[in-house]
Specification:
This protein is α/β, with parallel strands linked by helices. Helix content is 34%, strand content 17%. It comes from Phascolarctobacterium faecium.
């Protein structure tokens, strides 16, 4: 397989390459994820003022209003942001994923577009709480070229180890990966991932994360959970955490109950996206569980009247959904 560059256009703000020891970070999102991405970047810049950073953002399209915000963000913190427009039609031939955007496949291809030695890949649903410098001090053995954090869901990890026939007995979360870019290219990770997608990905139940676990099996370095942290229960602390990752369907920019929402809101309020309201689910019967989450959100905010209002709406929608079934 010979896939040429998928980049149609690039836009760069505040070129940082004139500095020595530039640290590279990359994201892959679609235009609907601009707000969480902007908040994530704000948290990175706030907590890494002593580092020279260049952010590489791979997307299909951004509105001008968001491009202007990214430019202002770059100017404010004197850091570089480079935006790559990808040919999203390339991904349309791959298996659909229950309404999930084709952007879930961006990270399979975007590393090959980078002309750097090492890069930190981050999902956009994260908040940076401390310096990222420790990532760039990671040393790999001869066999390792991607640093990751264990998924920390024993039953699911065991199931997926068996499903994907993983030899190293571990399963990682692909939302945070520190990558030796040269070895990634040398090992043809992109081509091997696309081969699985094209040949038969019907048994993959977690999109590109499953494919990356298969292709990178035995070649990863497992690092401490503070580099990709999410709470497993209510007894947790964010002390020393570098990356707080908001995994799952409940996101802090939506009206729902989320652990450490206050941390995300702190950086959201300090960002250029602070004026955007929280996302509210459409009040239709199949969304009754989401409406219940809205009720929980308002109760957590001590907004009792709205909490009751949405709880009653939840009960009504739930009843309508059960009748339909």
């Amino acid at each position: 397989m010979n896939h040429n560059s998928l980049v149609k256009k690039t836009i760069e703000f505040n070129d940082n390459l004139k500095h020595d020891n530039v640290k590279h970070i990359c994201f892959g999102v679609n235009c609907k994820f601009c707000r969480p991405l902007g908040v994530a970047i704000t948290s990175i810049f706030e907590n890494n003022r002593d580092l020279h950073l260049q952010l590489h953002i791979f997307t299909d399209y951004f509105e001008n209003i968001d491009l202007n915000k990214f430019e202002k963000l770059s100017e404010k913190y004197k850091q570089s942001i480079k935006i790559y427009y990808l040919d999203s039609s390339f991904f349309e031939k791959f298996p659909p994923n229950s309404g999930v955007s084709e952007s879930v496949y961006f990270r399979l291809c975007m590393i090959d577009e980078l002309d750097v030695d090492r890069c930190l890949y981050l999902d956009a649903d994260i908040i940076c709480l401390n310096s990222l410098n420790e990532f760039y001090e990671i040393n790999f053995t001869k066999e390792e070229f991607v640093a990751v954090v264990d998924d920390r869901h024993p039953s699911e990890s065991k199931r997926r180890n068996k499903l994907y026939n993983l030899k190293d007995g571990k399963y990682f979360n692909a939302g945070v990966m520190f990558i030796d870019v040269n070895t990634w290219k040398k090992e043809n990770v992109k081509e091997r991932c696309l081969k699985i997608l094209i040949k038969d990905a019907s048994y993959i139940d977690d999109w590109d994360q499953g494919i990356l676990n298969i292709v990178l099996d035995g070649r990863t370095k497992y690092i401490k959970e503070k580099f990709n942290f999410w709470p497993k229960n209510i007894l947790y602390t964010l002390r020393n955490v570098v990356i707080r990752h908001y995994i799952g369907k409940k996101k802090p920019w939506k009206l729902c109950k989320v652990a450490s929402r206050d941390v995300w809101e702190k950086y959201s309020q300090n960002s250029l996206w602070a004026d955007i309201p929280m996302e509210e689910p459409i009040a239709i019967p199949q969304n009754y569980r989401l409406i219940k989450e809205v009720s929980k959100y308002y109760f957590c905010k001590n907004n009792i009247s709205n909490g009751i209002k949405y709880y009653l709406k939840y009960l009504k929608l739930k009843a309508a959904f059960k009748v339909r079934k």
